[in-house]
Protein 1
Amino acid sequence: MRPQDDPTRQVWRTPAGPGGRRFRACEHGGVSATRLVTLDDAPILADLIRVSRDFLAPWEPVRNEGYFTVDGQRAVIRDALTQQVKSGPA
C-alpha cells in the first residue's frame, strides 16, 4: 500500500496558513468527539476561514473583511453561544 492510500496516516490537506500553521486532517476509523466552541477557538477558526476562503467563495455569502479576523470570529462565537444559551439544553 502506498503511504498516501493508508487511511490511518495523518496527512496535510491544506497549505500552511498565516504564521506557518497547518490544519491536519486525520483519517482513521476511531471515535470522534465534539465540544462546544469557546472564545479561545477564535484564532484557529479565523485561520481556517482565511485558508478556505477562496475555495468556499461560491457557496458562502458575501462577508465584510472583519468576519475573517480573530475579532470577527470572536463576535460570531459570542453570538452563537448567546443563541445556544437562549435555546436551552439540547
Protein 2
Amino acid sequence: MHHLLKLMACAAAAEAVAHATLVPVKLGENDDIPVYVGGEADAPAIIVIQEWWGVDRGTMQKALRLAQHGYRVLVPDIYKGKKGINAEEASHLMGELDFPKAVQEISIAAAYLKKTGSPTVGVVGFCMGGALALGALAASDDIEVGAPFYGVNFGLFDAKTLKKPVQGHFGALDTMEGFSDPATGKRLEKELTNAKVYIYENVGHAFLNTEPAPFSTFEERREKMGFPAYDMGQADLAWGRLLDFFLEHLAAAPPGRTDLPIHTPATEL
C-alpha cells in the first residue's frame, strides 16, 4: 500500500509539472531584462541560470523540477533570446557576454522576487550559469544561498568575503581545467568558508542533463565535446543533495515534498 501511495504521489507530481507554466516577464527600468517566472509568489524562490547554450528546454525542465517541490522559480534569459545551436555559436555568445552586467541583472531579478513576495531566494546555475550563480550570490544581498554545477569564475567574487552557504557539484571526469574540473571544485571548497563540494564518479561536464541537446545522441556529444553519457544514479544523487540544501537554507519549507522522479515531461519554450 505504501509503495502504491508513493507511486500515486509521483504520478500526481509529474502531472503537475506537465501543466506548470513559466511566464515571460521583463524587468529593469527599461524592461530589457527578460526572465521566465513560475510558482506561488509567496513561496521561497530559486533563480535557475542557463548553460552556455542559452535558455533551452533543459534549463526549463530543471526549473520545473524545482517548482515541482513548491518553489517559486525564475529563469533569466542571459542571452536575451539568442541561443547557441552548436558549440561554436555557444562559445561566441559566451565570449561576448558582459559577465559583470549579467551578475547585476540576476541581482535585479533577485530583488524583484523579494519585492513581489518571496521570503528567501537561492540561486543554482549550470556550466556558465554556475559561474554566474556564484557571482550573483556574492553581489546580491537578496540571495541567501548558491549552488554552482560544474562552473566557477573566481574573478566574479571575492572568496574571502563570500560567507553565504554554497553547495558545489562537479564531475570526476570533467576536463575543463580551471573552470569545472575536480581540482577547481576542490579549490572552491578550500577557499570559501561555508562551502561543501561534491565530486561525482564516472561523470563529467553537464552530467545533470537528461538529454544530449543540441546533439542528436550522447554518443555524438561525447565525440564532439568529450562529455560522458548521462548517469541517472549520479544525477539522482545530485538532485537529492541540492533539494536538501535548499530545504535547509531557504527558511520557509515548500509544502508536500516527496521523493519525486527527476524526469519531467518534455516542455517547449
Protein 3
Amino acid sequence: MAVHRGVVSGAPVPITEMTTTIHRGPAHARAHGLARRRRAAGPARPSRPGRVRDMLIGVLGVVGVLTVAWLLVSWLLGLSLVVLVTGSMAPTMPTGSAALVHTVTAADLAVGDVVTVPRPNSATPVTHRIVQIDTVRGDSASRSLILQGDANDVVDSAPYVVDEAPRVVAAAPHLGWVVLWAKTPTVMLALALLIAGAIAWALWPTAPPAQAPEPSDEKD
C-alpha cells in the first residue's frame, strides 16, 4: 500500500492507491525455465536435409563460378584444351595428358615450343615439339615447322606450314581422360540431368521450422 497526500480545498487529505500483486504460478515458471534453456543452447541447428541442401548450393555455386571464370578467361586469352591420345610426347606429356594451349602467330614461335598443328590427311591434330623453323618464300607471316615427338627417334615426315598455331602453356598428366569421358554424349546428358535435378531440389521451397511459443505472464 502506498500513501500519498494531496490538497483538497486547502486541507491535507490522505489518498490511498491500491496496487495489485501479480502471482506467477508453476506454469509460468516452467515456460520461463524452458525459454532460458533454449537461449543458453543457442539457435536451433538445421536438420540433416537442410545441411545437405546448404552444402549442395555451395558446391553448385563454386562449380558455377569456376565454369564462368574458365569460359571468360579462355575467351579473352584465346585458351583451349588439347588431349594427347598417343604417347609420342612421353615422358613430358604421357598418353591421356590434357594440354592448355594459347594460339600465337607463327612469328612468335621458337625452337623448343610444343605446338598443336593439323595433321595432313587426318582429322586428328598432332602435338609435337618444334626442332626447326624456316621462313616461307613469298609469305612473311607463315613459317615452316619441323616437329618431333619427345619419345620419337626421328622428326615428323613432312614440315608443317602455319601462319599461327596453338602453343602449349601447361599440361596435366591423365587429366585428358577425364575431359574425354566428360565430353561423351551419355555423360553430358547425365550430368545435365543431375545438375538440373540438384538445382531444383536445392531451390525447392520448404516450410520454415516451427517456432516455440513465447512464454506469457499469467495472473493467478
Protein 4
Amino acid sequence: MEWNGPGNVQITSRPPCRPPPFLATLPYHPVPLHDLTTGFIGRLRSRDGDAWFELWEIFGPVLRAQLARWGRGRIGFETVQDLSQDTMVALSRAIDQHDPTRGARFSTWLLAIAKYTLSDEMDRRGALKRGSGIRPLALDAEGMREPDSGDLQPDAAYELEVFDAKVEAALRRLERDCDLMDFETFRMRTLEGRSGKDVAVALGTSEPTVSRRLARSRTRLQDLLAEVFATFSFTEEEIAELERNGIERSPNKTEDASFDESIAEIYARIMARRSTHEARGEDR
C-alpha cells in the first residue's frame, strides 16, 4: 500500500509505480569503487536506479510546477512533463560535478539545470519559427556547472515546495512502515484534526489507546523526517529547516502538540496545492 498524497487521505492499494521513462535513458558510467560513498550523491553517481527513482518521486512534481511557472502559459502540460524528465537526464550527465561541500543546495543546482533545459526548448522553438536552423543551446558541461552563490536565486514558492515534498516523502514512508491502526490513528487525529474521543469511537478503542498509538506514530515520523531531510538535503541550512518549521525531534513532551499542529499545517498546505493542480487538470 502507498499513501495517495494529500489530495486523498484514504489508504488504498495500488499497483507498483512504473519508473518514469527518463530512467531508461540514463547513461551508465562505471564509477571507481573508491569514489563511491554511502551518501545519496554516491548512489546517484553509481547510477543506482532506486536512488534515481527516489529523486524523481520527490523532486519531479516540484520541477514540473517550477517549469510551468517559468513557461507562463507558453508551454503545455505535456511539454512540462517532457522538460522535467529532460532535466533529470541532464542531471544524470552532470552529477559527478556536484560538490555539496561548496554550500550550494542540491535543489538550487537542480533548478539551474531545469532553467537551462527550458531555455534550450524556448531557443529551439524560436529557431523553428524563424526558420533559421539555429542550433539550440547545448546542455554541456559548461552550461551545467555548479552555480555560484547569488547566480541563481530560487523563488520562495519553489523552496517551499521542495520542503513540503520532503515532508510528504516522510509521510509516505510512515504509512508504509507503520502499523495500520497506528497510522489510521495518526491520520485521523493529526492530519484530519479530529478529537481523541472521536477517533476512539471511530476505531472502536479507548482514548488512552489512541494516545499511545499517536505517540508511536509521532516518534516514527520524527525519525523518518530526520532520515528524509538527511538524504535529500546537502547543506546545514537545509537540515535546520526541521527546527525552523517546528518539526524537529524534541525531548520535551510538552512540545508534542506543537509538532502535531505544524505537521497538520504543512499537510493542509500540500493538500491545497494538490487541489489547485487538479482543478487545472494537471496530473501530478
